[in-house]
Every structure is written in structure tokens, then in C-alpha cells.
Structure to design on (519 residues):
């Protein structure tokens, strides 16, 4: 006989059971039995019956206990079918468990529930067919100071669940106990859960389109007023399968002809991704006379480094692609090998009253010749451009530089950015840095409706503390500086009505090579 057909409710299941049992009886009647005995010699077995006069029992348990629910019926034959129901849902047939992983077959046709929780509170029924003997078991899990987590309405405390990128996930935490005023507090990987883009509403977390940032250990704590220790806590691990995420911390790699270049690519993926380096559409071999690729783990990410030997101007400059791929998708990062300086990186700033010292770091294997500063008040559209200043020549073969700008400005919120130049050309502008001047101090203000004449530029001396006076106008970010340093303090055809005179000095230092080794 077979009982493999899926059913949706108790009545459908019983109808199929009766049909199958009738077929079984008819099949047996049609077969001759050589061992049959006469009616006078037949032994009449006792039919299944309840062990006691009661057809039900109540079992009490505590959260976390393992509980066996008995089927207290005698004279059960191998030909009988034993069904277990959770209300109307069939959860077991004979010793075959049909639903939850926490349920096992128990002794004497019973079932065993592992690690019970209040979610298991219910009436369970054991039914013996075809005799229609039924035994009911009411399970009551006593409340205590505990919390339990469910994920998408499935009991989840101290378990792991896996989802694919883009799935929707709902976590819920419930407190069990007699305390009042208990607040549910969530954390993810020990930190603030709001930083990961999850929507938290009281005891529930809603995640639309789950991604790599949502993976980790979710902890639920029941914060009981006036109690600082032994607070109820539990957790669930959420594993997310996602396509690769690929990046690089150096989009431009400066070098010079005949030297080498190291290109960096960082990525993470689940499942793990494969990686290839390409120049144009050509795959670069892992090891050759020209190239070497080294893969490692860096700061919890996979890192691949492409080492290019003996840079050639005609064949080696330009764009390189780091391509990653797994079963869910692919991604890439682009890195340029250049002779111009790399984009400066903001390092730090110091503010004293209206005086601000700004520092950037830059890489160039050939000496830096000039630097230019743009700055403006926040929420304005046009940049004010400081004169580009020449600097001392430095020895070849040293690549790390520090750009220092000392600026005295009025109160307000400001943005500043720089770029630098070597013999091959200008770098890209650095990412704008924002700073705020809050301390009130007198400023020189000139109200004019005419274009002010530019002031003379004095090039910096060896005294870094010397403050130089400069006038400045407004220049588009896309404008390219040309000519010598002194001529670059120019005024465009459009100016702010309020012209502010400030004191400033822009200077460039050489750094020891180790200063940028970790950037």
C-alpha cells in the first residue's frame, strides 16, 4: 500500500487512507492462503483500544525541553495506520515524519519534539486506522524569562537560514515570561542593526531584497526594566548567497617607463568567485615574464594583485579590468596605469579659530611640479581657485608626497579639493573635503560691483609658517591650468558679489615611501 500523495487537510487525507485500505483488503481476499485455518480453528485477535478510560492527556514542559507525546493505544497491528496531527495538519505517518525537523519518531508509536518552545503549544492527535481510535495530547510549554526568534514564520532560535540575494526576510522576536515593560533590542554582528539598511519596527525586522550587508548573526535581547544581568537572549544566523562585489582602492596607478606597477583588486562573494585580469579583451596569464598575479585574503576580503614588469609606453599604459564571477553573477573593477600623478587623498585637517590646515597625500614617481587648490562655500555652485604654486625639485625615484594648505577663512561650511602636476600632466581632483569654521572672528570684506584686480603672487619660501596673501576668482572645475604659476590667479567673467580676502599658503613636501604603503 502507498501513502505518498500530498494532502492539504485532514478530511482529504482520511479519504485517501480509506481508499487505499479497501484496495489492500480486496487484494488480500483475492489471493489464496495455503496457511488458512478453518473458522473453528481461527484465533480472534483483540482490536486496537485505548489503554485507559481517558482519551486525552495534558503534558506540561519548559522552553528548551525535549518532550515525547504518547499514542496510548493497545493492540496496534502492523496493518494499522497511525497518523499524528497538529490540530488538522498531518505531521507523521507511522514512524515517518512529514514536517518539522525538530520532530522525531518516539517509542510506542509516539512522537518526540526537540527543544520545545511556546510555538509548540497546541493539541496533538494520534489516530489509528481503520479502527478510528483517537488519542489527544495537549502540550503546554510553560512561560519563563526567555526570547524566541522566528524567521519568515519559522521557529529559528540558534539556527542558520540561507537566502539568495533579492529575497525578502522577516525576523520576529517574542518575549516569554511574566515581566512587564520588556523591550526587544536587536543587534547584527554585535553592532547597530540600523547601519545595515534593515527596517526595525518594535520586535520585528523587515529586510526587502536581502544582500551581503544583511548576512550575519542577529541577536535578540529582552531588556527587562530594573534588571541588568541574566537578561533573556537568543540569536539566529542568516547566510546570504550573492553575486561578487568588486572594488579597488587605487583606480589610477602611477609609474614611469621601465619601472613596474602593482594593480589591486578586492572582492567578496558567496559562493566564492573566480577572478581574471584583462587588458582590453585579452586575458592576462597568472605567471609569465611580463606579469605575475598573487591572490590572498586582506581585511576579510579576497585580494588579487597584478604585477606588471618593465612598463612600456606603447603597450602597458591604459585600462585593466579585474573580472569576478560566481554562479549568481559577475562584477568588475577598472584600474588605469598612468604616468601622471595619482588622485590626491585627504589625510587630515586642523582648525584653530578661522585658520585651517589641510593635508593631502599623493603618489608620483616623478617629482611634483605644481599644485592647485579649489574651495567654495557649501551650497554654492562655483569653485574659487587658488593660484597654482611651483615647488622645489625633488630627486627621482621617490613617489610619496604631502600637500599642505594653510587657509584663513570666514565662518561657514566649506569644501576644498586639490590636484597636482608632474612632467606628464595633471592628476584628477581629489574628492572634496568638507570643513566648518564656527569661531567668530573679524574678516576683511570688500563689497564691490566691479571685478577686483588680482593680487601679486609670492612663491613660498622655506619657512612653512609664512602666510601669503592672494586674491582669487571663480573657475569651473573642468578648466585646465595653463601658463606659469603667477599667471594662474585669474578672474573669470562671473564673480560673487561679496569678495572675501583670505590668507593662505600652499606647499608640497616629500614623504618617506612607507607613508603611503597601506593606502
Amino acid at each position: 500500500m502507498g501513502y505518498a500523495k500530498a494532502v492539504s487537510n485532514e478530511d482529504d487525507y482520511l479519504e485517501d487512507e480509506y481508499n487505499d485500505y479497501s484496495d489492500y483488503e480486496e487484494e488480500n481476499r483475492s489471493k489464496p492462503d495455503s496457511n488458512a485455518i478453518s473458522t473453528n480453528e481461527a484465533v480472534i485477535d483483540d482490536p486496537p483500544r485505548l489503554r485507559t478510560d481517558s482519551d486525552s492527556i495534558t503534558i506540561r514542559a519548559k522552553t528548551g525541553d525535549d518532550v515525547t507525546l504518547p499514542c496510548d493505544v493497545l493492540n496496534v497491528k502492523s496493518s494499522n495506520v497511525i497518523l499524528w496531527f497538529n490540530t488538522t495538519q498531518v505531521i507523521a505517518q507511522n514512524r515517518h515524519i512529514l514536517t518539522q525537523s525538530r520532530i522525531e519518531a518516539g517509542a510506542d508509536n509516539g512522537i518526540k519534539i526537540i527543544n520545545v518552545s511556546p510555538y509548540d503549544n497546541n493539541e496533538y492527535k494520534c489516530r489509528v486506522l481503520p479502527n478510528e481510535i483517537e488519542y489527544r495530547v495537549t502540550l503546554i510549554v510553560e512561560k519563563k524569562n526567555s526570547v524566541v526568534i522566528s524567521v519568515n514564520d519559522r521557529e529559528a532560535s540558534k539556527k542558520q537560514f540561507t537566502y539568495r540575494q533579492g529575497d525578502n526576510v522577516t525576523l520576529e522576536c517574542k518575549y516569554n515570561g511574566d515581566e512587564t515593560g520588556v523591550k526587544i533590542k536587536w543587534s547584527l554582528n554585535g553592532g547597530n542593526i540600523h547601519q545595515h539598511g534593515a527596517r526595525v519596527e518594535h520586535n520585528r525586522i523587515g529586510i526587502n531584497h536581502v544582500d551581503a550587508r544583511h548576512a550575519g548573526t542577529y541577536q535578540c535581547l529582552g531588556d527587562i526594566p530594573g534588571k541588568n544581568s541574566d537578561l533573556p537572549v537568543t540569536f539566529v544566523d542568516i547566510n546570504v548567497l550573492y553575486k561578487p562585489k568588486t572594488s579597488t582602492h587605487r583606480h589610477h596607478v602611477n609609474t614611469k617607463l621601465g619601472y613596474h606597477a602593482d594593480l589591486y583588486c578586492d572582492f567578496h562573494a558567496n559562493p566564492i568567485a573566480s577572478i581574471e585580469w584583462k587588458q582590453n579583451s585579452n586575458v592576462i596569464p597568472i605567471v609569465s615574464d611580463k606579469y605575475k598575479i598573487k591572490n590572498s585574503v586582506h581585511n576579510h576580503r579576497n585580494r588579487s594583485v597584478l604585477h606588471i614588469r618593465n612598463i612600456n609606453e606603447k603597450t602597458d599604459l591604459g585600462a585593466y579590468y579585474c573580472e569576478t564571477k560566481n554562479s549568481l553573477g559577475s562584477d568588475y573593477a577598472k584600474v588605469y596605469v598612468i604616468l601622471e600623478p595619482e588622485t590626491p587623498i585627504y589625510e587630515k585637517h586642523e582648525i584653530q579659530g578661522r585658520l585651517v590646515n589641510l593635508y593631502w597625500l599623493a603618489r608620483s614617481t616623478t617629482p611634483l611640479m605644481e599644485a592647485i587648490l579649489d574651495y567654495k562655500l557649501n551650497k554654492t555652485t562655483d569653485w574659487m581657485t587658488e593660484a597654482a604654486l611651483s615647488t622645489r625639485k625633488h630627486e627621482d625615484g621617490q613617489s610619496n608626497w604631502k600637500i599642505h594648505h594653510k587657509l584663513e577663512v570666514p565662518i561657514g561650511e566649506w569644501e576644498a579639493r586639490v590636484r597636482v602636476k608632474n612632467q606628464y600632466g595633471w592628476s584628477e581632483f581629489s574628492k572634496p573635503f568638507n570643513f566648518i569654521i564656527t569661531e567668530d572672528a573679524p574678516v576683511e570684506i570688500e563689497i564691490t560691483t566691479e571685478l577686483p584686480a588680482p593680487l601679486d603672487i609670492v612663491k613660498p619660501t622655506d619657512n612653512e609658517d609664512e602666510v601669503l596673501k592672494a586674491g582669487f576668482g571663480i573657475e569651473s572645475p573642468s578648466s585646465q591650468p595653463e601658463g606659469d604659476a603667477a599667471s594662474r590667479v585669474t578672474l573669470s567673467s562671473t564673480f560673487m558679489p561679496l569678495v572675501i580676502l583670505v590668507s593662505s599658503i600652499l606647499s608640497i613636501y616629500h614623504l618617506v615611501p612607507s607613508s603611503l604603503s597601506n593606502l
